[in-house]
Amino acid sequence: MRPLVLAALVTAALASPALSSPAWAQSAPAEPPALQHRQGLSMEMPRLEEDAALQAAIASTARPEADRARDGQRHPFETLTFWGLQPGLTVVEIEPGRAGWWRNILEPYAAATGGRYVPVSKPTEGMGVEDGTADMVVVARAFHNWSRDGRTDPHLAAFFKALKPGGVLAVEQHRSVDGLNVADVASTGYVPESYVIHAARRAGFELEARSELNANAKDDRDHPFGVWTLPPTRTSERAGRTLTAEERAAFDAIGESDRMTLRFRKPEAAN
Questions:
Q1: Where are the chain's structural domains?
Q2: For the whole prediction, is pTM greater than 0.85?
């Protein structure tokens, strides 16, 4: 099994403005200490490894222009590095959708590095890989849908079964204020981070790290059409309610949603 090697900086460093600058990415040490395995809620930034193939996949003009325009708010290189993406891995993406934002990076990257990209729309009907062979399962902005019809637990069970021992469950999800009932907020597109963490732990995963890479303090989650009011969907009219030009501009100024970014791991001892 190819190990998913990650390096990170400690929690205190996350608050440093220098870490968000390109200069920091270029000045990372060549041999950082390995990330210690732990289950706690650690706030960690990735070390931006030199991965020319990943950089090329992200910069490729084969990606739709609209996709590339969102990179500043989606942080694909940093997020995939945090999750532990490496050349040659078998990566399963759950419900990539028609737009395929992550797919348009992951699929060419896999092709260029001898890996395998597997899109899966209905995980309980098949994960597209043999049990225990996937290195990574990527779930982006889907838990709000699953929580509404009882799919969260069976889906997580399918991910656990598909992953190798030591494999990674990578999660990006619109984040509500914690402590709220998921049933009250899921229809807005947001769920509490604790909901995702508890559900993944029930399935047998260990929470290894969480990051604020995709946080957005300007998102107060109070939008007339839920998260879909914000870019990129920009819903402006529904059920007789139409945003004014001023409202539309204000929501656009928020940018994309506040999102949790989590890395779970299937224990090495798991079958």
A1: 36-216+257-265, 220-255
A2: no
* Fold of domain 36-216+257-265: Rossmann fold (3.40.50)
Cα gap 88→204, rounded to integer Å: 25
* Average pLDDT of the chain, as a whole number: 86
Residue 49: what pLDDT?
Answer: 60
Contact, 152 vs 144, CB < 8 A? no
Contacts 24+ apart (CB under 8 A), 152-159: 152/199, 153/199, 153/202, 153/203, 154/124, 155/94, 155/123, 155/124, 156/199, 156/200, 156/202, 156/203, 156/205, 157/203, 158/123, 158/124, 158/127, 159/92, 159/94, 159/123, 159/127, 159/203
Res 10 pLDDT > 70:
no
> Which residue, chain included where needed, has tokens 């069976």?
154
CA distance 175 to 140: 12
Of the candidates 76, 5, 4, 70, which has an alpha carbon nearest to the alpha carbon of residue 34? 5
